[in-house]
Write a structure and sequence with these properties.
The chain is an alpha/beta fold. The protein has nine helices and twelve strands. The protein is globular.
Length: about 300
């Protein structure tokens, strides 16, 4: 069986642009109201970031739109950062290192992270999130929308997981997509996958200015990934459907982390009620900073 996951408190940041640098990750780690820290999604050798193209905008009513790709920093940058942040004291919470790339690159990244986690005598509490769901990469559609592509990634994961490994999925919109995902996990990764993070942003979204002649808010075509409140209901539906499909497939030990539009205690309660074991915050974190976690968790405790 893959390692079981548990977070206390069951609240964390999702893989966002606001979890890119060592200082940003350090602030998240120091926050008493996060049960884990997720890095921005990284590639083995980093992503070619172009500030003229890769941008975000906060929209009214708690939503956001972005045209970002992945972190400009390579995997080794994040391993070095985790080492520095947790050095000199007992590790207080897991680091979830979000990765992507080709199946071969992902396999190499998993090997490097596993070796890194085993460096210390008592080991480091490190998880892996395999992001197969970014909608903003030209000519590279999210692999989690393609059954054959998804299976090719799952087949390259180590046969026996020594660390919790999860999948970050895109928003699914019809039943066959959920069935295909769960079928792939059951066939190729029942002993490998510990959790599913649902959901990433919703691609092919556009926001136009309110001018007399409306223009895209973001550069170029303005097409990007929609996040925050606008996808909250869709994310809740994904979490709930995944939980039921996993249970029906005999994969009850695969847990679900719910992400999408949570900005307050009510949103967190809805995610937990839908079937999530923990809740990730993205847009609200980017808008309000680390203080959002105390606000959300404090309301849940009341």
């Amino acid at each position: 069986m893959p390692p079981r996951i548990r977070l206390t408190p069951p609240l964390l940041n999702s893989a966002t642009p606001w979890a890119t640098t060592h200082s940003e990750l350090s602030a998240l780690y120091a926050c008493a109201h996060t049960g884990a820290v997720t890095t921005r999604t990284t590639l083995l050798h980093g992503f070619e970031h172009d500030a003229r193209v890769h941008q975000h905008t906060f929209l009214p009513e708690g939503s956001s739109l972005n045209t970002y790709g992945y972190s400009p920093y390579a995997l080794e940058y994040y391993l070095r950062g985790v080492r520095q942040i947790v050095s000199g004291a007992a590790q207080k919470k897991p680091f979830i290192i979000s990765i992507t790339g080709t199946p071969t690159e992902v396999s190499e990244s998993v090997s490097r992270i596993s070796a890194f986690a085993a460096e210390e005598e008592e080991g480091r509490d490190v998880w892996i999130e395999l992001n197969l769901s970014c909608p903003n990469i030209p000519s590279k559609p999210p692999p989690a929308y393609d059954h054959a592509e998804l299976c090719s990634y799952l087949q390259r994961l180590p046969p026996t997981a020594t660390l919790p490994i999860g999948l970050k999925t895109p928003p699914y919109t019809y039943a066959a997509q959920f069935t295909a995902l769960v079928s792939a996990i059951r066939k190729h990764a029942a002993e490998k996958i510990a959790f599913v993070t649902a959901t990433n942003t919703l691609g092919s979204s556009l926001h136009l200015s309110d001018a007399t002649a409306p223009t895209p808010t973001l550069p170029g075509s303005g097409i990007g990934g929609l996040a925050g409140a606008a996808i909250h209901c869709l994310s809740l539906g994904n979490v709930n459907t995944l939980r039921r499909e996993l249970d029906n497939a005999g994969l009850r030990d695969v847990t679900v982390i719910g992400v999408g539009g949570v900005s307050d205690a009510a949103g967190m309660r809805r995610m937990l009620a839908a079937g999530a074991v923990a809740v990730g915050v993205g847009t609200a974190f980017g808008r309000e900073g680390v203080g959002i976690f105390a606000s959300v968790l404090g309301g849940v405790s009341e």
